[in-house]
Write a structure and sequence with these properties.
The protein is about 45% helix and about 20% strand. With about 250 residues, the chain is α+β, with helices and mostly antiparallel strands.
Length: about 250
């Protein structure tokens, strides 16, 4: 309990300072645009109004992500665990990315023995975690993303692999902290990644009494692994199945 309280105090301190930093940039741009509006005409007027709309949208997205993270960090979810067929869920979620991503290939891999496996989960939150992991992989992958489901002993695991630049070992723990972003993100001022996506995944994993692990993928990029307890009886593995999807996404 003492470690939990100390961890929350440190997390809140980090969150408070990070929120102030994240809010400062779009607010500064809004202030600048308001000043320029006083003398702007024609195309310049439209350009400044468009910029202000983008800054307002950025602030709204940031506040939504902050509220989601704060709600997850408070404790256990206000719902009961549900039984869910995991392979259809993964297939449906991957299909969501298909219309937008044609320049990168995405594959779902699993053993045939898992086709009818049902797992215990908070379904809507598990969906959010998977979407965040796949979105993160699409952001950094060069051309390939692989999502894999497996059962290891009493643990279920979803691996999300990419062939991007990967994350150095000394930055892997930091990647799960709120408002933590890789150097490429911090240098890209047009990137609306607030650094909360992976923190949200980490909190959802904890809600499931699980954890997130970051390693190197077989494609020399990143592997994000979401583990949580599961109780399933499986026949002997026979073969593996791969469902491939063509997805389009520009490299961030």
């Amino acid at each position: 309990m003492a470690e939990r309280i100390q961890g929350l105090i440190q997390s809140h301190k980090h969150l408070t300072s990070s929120v102030a930093h994240e809010l400062r940039t779009p607010l500064s741009r809004l202030s600048f645009s308001l000043e320029m509006l006083q003398s702007a005409e024609g195309k310049n007027l439209f350009r400044h109004l468009t910029s202000m709309q983008q800054d307002v949208a950025e602030l709204e997205n940031l506040i939504t992500e902050m509220l989601t993270y704060a709600r997850l960090e408070r404790g256990t979810p206000p719902m009961q665990l549900q039984k869910r067929a995991i392979i259809p869920l993964l297939s449906q979620l991957i299909e969501r990315f298909k219309p937008e991503n044609e320049q990168k290939t995405m594959a779902l891999r699993y053993d045939e023995s898992y086709e009818n496996v049902h797992v215990n989960c908070y379904e809507s939150y598990l969906e959010r975690a998977i979407i965040n992991l796949v979105s993160n992989a699409l952001r950094y992958a060069k051309s390939q993303i692989v999502i894999e489901f497996a059962c290891q002993g009493e643990q279920c695991v979803i691996h999300v692999d990419d062939d991007g630049p990967g994350i150095p070992k000394n930055k892997r723990k930091e990647a799960l902290l709120p408002f933590s972003r890789l150097d490429n993100d911090q240098q890209n001022t047009k990137n609306l990644n607030f650094g909360l996506g992976l923190s949200i995944v980490d909190q959802i994993a904890k809600w499931h009494e699980g954890f997130v692990d970051i390693t190197e993928s077989s494609m020399h990029g990143s592997r994000f692994s979401l583990y949580w307890p599961c109780e399933v009886e499986l026949p002997l593995a026979e073969s593996a199945k791969t469902l491939a999807h063509n997805d389009k996404s520009s490299v961030a």
